[in-house]
Amino acid sequence: MGHYSENCSDDLNTFWDELSKTCVPCHKHSQHPILPGYEFSPNCGRHDDGGRSEAPYRPCAAQSFNNGSFVKCQPCFRCAPNHQKLSECNTTTDTQCCLTSHQFQTQQVQRSTTLRDQVSSSSLTTAKHIGLGLHGYSATAWIVLTVILVFSALAFLLFIYIKKRRRTSRAFCFRDKENTHQRSRSSKTTAAVNEEVALLQSETRSLEDILSPDLQSAPLQMVLDNLDVLEELVILLDPESPGVKNTSHLASRCSFPATWITYTYSLRESKSPLRAVLEGVTTKHPEWTVGHLARLLREMDRNDAVAVLTKLSLLKVF
């Protein structure tokens, strides 16, 4: 039996609607949308009296598909001999084909040959017209015309050559810039790794292992004299960050009053608070050494600042 509805036997993609007394397409039913990978059963599987003998859908048979755009499954496309199959057909997607690389290159050559033939034909036609127009002129005119054509061809070839050279040199420049950038980035990465190693060592080793006895006994003034080290300490200690002890905590440990610390921080736009603290300490306690500062920084858990102190040069001690 090829159909279930006697009233709609001429169109198997419809079913009999008792209310409207008409044949209604299956996909017009609110509960029967088109489904990818399926097709509608004959008359949606419904009889004229509303009874049902089959589900409204059937899965697509082998070598057929429905991507959600058809009421019936469509046969899968077969790739031509000169095409390459990208993907196999399945119940929801048709076969995907494309030109083979050899065929693509052949077509490119054919297009190029056709274009070259057109240009050659056009050139011959032009030359023929020129020849007819110059028939009455002397041989000198022909020589001049030939020279002009030769120089035009040479100029065109020179233009193409220069353009290719520019592309090559430009690509080389881009590669050179990229290599330079990579080397610079590698150097920065190496420096960052070295700083991380120094910081890790300062956290796990004792102060005596980090700073030599000569450096620990050096006067505190040495920190003020070494501007590079002082600048790194300022960058680390002056900012006020939540949960991180800074210059204000160092000043408190050096017995500076809170009012003095507040006043010093109010002038930070013109002078670093850390520099003011170190200058005050060296004035009040000239006997203080780098070791005193290092121990205070260790108590503050500022091992990063202790690692910076290792960069001090002992040449300035003597």
From TrEMBL:
Return the PROSITE patterns for the record.
Answer: TNFR_NGFR_1, TNFR_NGFR_2
Among the entry's GO cellular component annotations, what is one?
Answer: plasma membrane
The transmembrane segments are 139-162
Q: Which Gene3D superfamilies match?
A: Death Domain, Fas
InterPro entries named in the record? DEATH-like_dom_sf (IPR011029), IGFLR1 (IPR042355), TNFR/NGFR_Cys_rich_reg (IPR001368)
Source domain of life: Eukaryota
Keyword Transmembrane among UniProt keywords: yes
Q: Which keywords fit this entry according to its UniProt record?
A: Disulfide bond, Membrane, Transmembrane, Transmembrane helix
Spans of the TNFR-Cys repeats are: 59-97
Residue span(s) of domain TNFR-Cys = 59-97
Listed disulfide bonds for this chain?
Answer: C76-C89, C79-C97
Q: What is this protein called?
A: IGF-like family receptor 1
Q: Which gene encodes it?
A: LOC115177345
